[in-house]
Specification:
It is globular, with a radius of gyration of 17 Å. It has 4 helices and 15 strands. The chain is 11% helix and 32% strand.
């Protein structure tokens, strides 16, 4: 995540914008089992570590952001969790070695493109009310932009700009998706068809610690995974600046090629 911060500082300096960080502020506390696809990632990087989010896309595979895992030596995956400081009933923590992490081969931290990675669990999970995969968008070549549709982002990131540690409880916000054209007025050309933007009106946003976590569009009872938290404004998460996510429909081939997971 440090790489992302440094690279985009230089990129946006001429626009007098602040550096960026991948990062739920002013959100609601999640109920147990409300987001069974949500996972937490405690990432070991040398003698230090970082916290990110991710999404279950099958019994064996997790999708997250490349900037979370590109320097990882290993990761501990929290599944079935709402409170990450406690060992709740139904919560599991699974260690994954570096060999189980697949970072997109064309991930570019300087330009923040292809910010996506996969984690393979050492064994299949048993699904239940607290643990269940999100559904990938159908791979049919006809993909919605989701502009103006409501979507839900969740995670354990900072719950306000005054916070200095990730939230001990899972939180979420439901906000409209912003068109790429409108989002680019904020992000000065960084917005391509490979990312998706969420409005943060009212200061409701992803924040530091939410990186890699899910952006989901609900259709009936189906949770379609449409984004993975990529970056936002480091000046603060409550500044009404659009949050940016990797657009999952742009990576369905890559996901299938590396994990075999597909929705046809």
């Amino acid at each position: 995540m440090l790489k992302l911060f440094i690279a985009l500082t230089a990129l946006l300096a001429t626009a007098a914008a602040a550096p960026l960080e991948g990062r739920i502020t002013n959100g609601d506390v999640a109920r147990v089992g409300q987001f069974p696809y949500q996972v937490g990632l405690s990432i070991a990087i040398g003698d230090s570590g970082a916290w990110c989010g991710g999404s279950l896309i099958s019994k064996r595979w997790i999708l997250t952001a490349a900037h979370c895992t590109d320097s990882a030596d290993s990761v501990t995956v929290y599944v079935g969790a709402t409170k990450i400081k406690e060992e709740e009933p139904g919560q599991h923590r699974i260690h994954v070695e570096k060999s189980g992490i697949i970072v997109h081969e064309h991930w570019n931290p300087q330009l923040v493109v292809n910010d996506i990675s996969l984690i393979k669990l050492p064994a299949e999970l048993e699904f239940n009310d607290r643990v269940r995969a999100a559904t990938l968008p159908k791979k049919d070549g006809r993909y919605s932009t989701y502009a103006d549709e409501l979507a839900i982002a969740s995670g354990w990131g900072l719950d306000s700009d005054k916070s200095n540690a990730v939230s001990p409880v899972l939180r979420y916000v439901e906000q409209p998706i912003m068109s790429s054209e409108r989002c680019n007025k904020y992000w000065m050309g960084l917005i391509t068809d490979k990312v998706i933007c969420m409005s943060t009106k009212g200061g409701k946003s992803t924040c530091q610690g939410d990186s890699g976590g899910p952006l989901v569009h609900k259709e009936g009872d189906i949770n379609y995974l449409i984004g993975a938290t990529s970056f936002g404004l480091s000046l603060g998460c409550e500044k009404n600046f659009p949050a940016v996510f990797t657009r999952i429909t742009s990576y369905l081939d890559w996901i299938e090629d590396h994990s075999g997971v597909v929705n046809k």
